[in-house]
Amino acid sequence: MYTSRITGMGKYVPENVVTNDDLSKLMDTNDAWIQERTGIKERRHIKKDDGNSTAVMGVKAATIALERAKISKDDIDMIVFATLSPDYYFPGCGVQVQEMMEIHTCPAIDVRNQCSGFVYALSVADQFIKTGMYKNVLVIGSENHSGGLDMTTRGRSVSVIFGDGAGAAVLSRSEENGHGVLSTHLHSEGKHALELSLKGPSTMHWVPELIEQNPQEDIPYYPYMNGQFVFKNAVRRFSEVIMQGLEANDLQVSDIDMLVPHQANLRISQFIQKKFQLTDDQVYNNIQKYGNTTAASIPIALCEAWEEGKIKDGDTVVLAAFGSGFTWASAVMKW
Prior knowledge:
By secondary structure, the chain is α/β, with parallel strands linked by helices. It has 2 domains: 175 residues, 3-Layer(aba) Sandwich (Peroxisomal Thiolase, Chain A, domain 1), CATH 3.40.47; 154 residues, Peroxisomal Thiolase, Chain A, domain 1. Helix content is 33%, strand content 23%. The protein is built from 11 helices and 13 strands. The strands form 4 sheets. A 5-stranded mixed sheet has the order 1-7-6-4-5, with helices on both faces. It has a 4-stranded mixed sheet with strand order 8-13-12-11, sandwiched between helices. Helix 3 crosses helix 4. The longest helix has 22 residues. The chain is globular, with a radius of gyration of 19 Å. It starts with a strand and ends with a strand.
């Protein structure tokens, strides 16, 4: 049985910084209100004229990851792209990346597991490598949230949270036992699907129908979130899936060198950190700068932690996510 290791990482965020004060000019909110509830100070948003999209940002992050992995595009055997905000209904962003990067006719898979998307995508890549089918898999998480947010007072509870960006990793085959991805753990609970959702437009509700049937103050093609309910479920599932990963590998909480949680809300991360009695050096958060970038949040944070020297060879790294679906997941790695 082979193992898989992250051999290169990259990230990209748009240059356009949107502060809490900037949002206060668009809606009834303020810096103190946003920071108190989310911990977010600023986020990045795509500008209409900057050439970015979900797929384009994915390419930018992936290009850096390939360079750091010291492989070429011709060495990629598969692309796994995680997003909730694809450029088109179809085709998916995976094949767009393939075309933009001029990668040969390898398979491209799109993963739609929202905030858990990158860990789900990582697990897919890990299984293909462990079975010996592929050697190098490009895994991308990318989101363009700003293009679909209600930037008025009506939508402030959701719109202040999310930002745009992309992260990518090259997962490569290794024969070194005890290193790389040790295990992944995936869960879902569909009965709560609509507590964090975007109902339309969809094949059930196309845009003209929505505009005709719904008054402007109640537009269902903006995201909906039952914030308190999501928070309560998140802290529970984060804890469970972290412990599941540790127990599967005979590890203790004290063995964690770095926990990289999905950057959903700084208050959730702080709750988990306190519950597990982890130090600031054992948990990496960057939601303060980027907001919640959904499928991109873990690869951006993981890449940044590594770039800052906070993850070193031999470290035990735990990734954990929770989000719409509800879905939640974890991965345990020996770096």
